[in-house]
Amino acid sequence: MAPMASMAHQALLTHSVAILARRAATALAAVLVLGAAAAPAAYADSPSASPKKLPNGLYGSKDPQYDGVWRQSLALLAQDTVGVRPAASAVNWLAGQQCADGSFTAFRAEPGKPCDAKTRRDTNPTAAAVQALAALGGHGDAVKKAVSWLKSVQNDDGGWSSMAGSASDANSTSVVIGALVAAGEKPQSVTSKKGKTPYDGLLTFQLGCAAKGDGRGAFTFQLKGAAPNADATAAAATGARGKGFVVEPAGNGADTPVKPLSCKDGDKKAGADDPAQAAEGGDGYLVAQLDKNGQHLLSAMPGAEAQPDVGNTADAVVALAAGAHGAAAAKPLKWLEKNSADWAKQSGPAAYAQLVLVAHATGTDPRSFGGTDLVSALNATGPEPAAAAKKDTEDADDSQDGGGLGVVWVIGIGLAIGAGIGFLLSSRKKSRL
Q: Within 13 Å of residue 190, how many CA atoms lie on the same side as its CB?
């Protein structure tokens, strides 16, 4: 394989596994089959052996090998946004997954065993855990250590990759920005050794006025000049505004018109000049895709027809809500309310959590989301909350099975190879699971 092709193939696999870590752990085998020949060394082995028995306090009944920390973090965050106080066992499990240096990996089967050089530290679960622990409070030291580790692996361009030492990507950079903000940091003040900020790094992935077709304003996952990526665009449009997983509703019927990236004749600039402009450009791309596809985004398995991507659509709604684009968010929100129930039931805690966060961002009632009580459903996938509404605990009593619904994951794997970049979309993901 030629050097350029090998690098592109590696970028494809890296992106696929990063999305899997958030969305669909059980599909990892398929991705490895597709890309094993160029698998990065960091992904040569499993994060930690699959447990014979699921740990006490963990949300979900499926194998946590690739998404344990991620799904736990989203579940705890979602509960916090609706005033549910999680079980101490659930919070303790998450806190206990941290390595001594502050980092997290996808899952540690033996948290009592110190992390060593073979432990695959990952910025994505680390940043997710920071957002959850910061929101819950009482874990200031753990949050501080995790943020210090994230800063220590910042790339020279200002961004982050999932695995330290790899090229930055839009998704990882966005989730770390959310963690920095949650921890009380100012992303614009977090600079690399070469003086680049996280926003500097993030904006390099935006396709600007030279983009072909309808890609103007979109973000690529990693390689400059690569194909537009809806997953990366939704993440970046949120991160560029300094937002994390929890986006507060604009309120009062706020509706700011979306302003797509505008270009003058002959303008070939790479993208927007500042994060706010970049976010607007990303939103403009998302709205165009949503309008074209019937108010949902698409993913497809190789050789198969494109299918609705519920998780990625949810990400897009949050991105639009972050920009106070009420009218633009309302249409795909209605689609989610009508079409997300089966996906969430099949996918488990992180899917329910993601929809709770969508409801929170849009000011929608999560206890009546298209006829589904998302809060009760989420609570039922883990240990009984320490404090919750009476109805939530009563509903959970009947459905509690130790942490999940036990339904086999249904995942849509979409590979778009353009300038060597591919993307894996959720079934959402990220897992976003």
A: 28
Rounded distance, CA 278 to CA 259, Å? 10
Least confident of 43-47, 58-62, 319-323: 43-47
Q: Say which residue the tokens 């070939």 belong to.
A: 268
Residue 193, preceding bond cis, omega within 30 degrees?
Answer: no
391, two tokens: 């109805």
Q: Residues 382-404: what's their mean pLDDT?
A: 57
Question: Tens of pLDDT along 35-57?
Answer: 322 323 333 345 776 777 889 99
Lookup: tokens for 428: 């959402």
Task: Tell me the whole-structure pTM to 2 decimals.
Answer: 0.81
How far is residue 264's CA from residue 253's CA, in Å, rounded to a whole number?
A: 33
**Rg of the chain, C-alpha, whole Å:** 20
Q: Across 248-349, where does the E strand assignment appear?
A: 297-299, 307-309
Comparing CA positions, the residue from 359, 354, 164, 131 lying closest to residue 242 is 131
Neighbour count for residue 95 (Cβ, 10 Å): 17
Residue 370 CB burial class (10 angstroms; 0-12, 13-18, ≥19)? middle
Question: What is the chain's length?
Answer: 433
CA distance 85 to 98: 21
| Cα distance between residue 371 and residue 7, in whole Å | 46
The predicted-structure confidence for 74-100, as pLDDT tens digits, reads as follows 999 999 999 999 999 999 999 999 999
Q: Chain-wide mean pLDDT for the chain?
A: 82
Structure tokens at 303: 């050789």
Rounded alpha-carbon distances, angstroms, from residue 388 to 1, 76, 174, 186, 383: 56, 13, 31, 33, 12
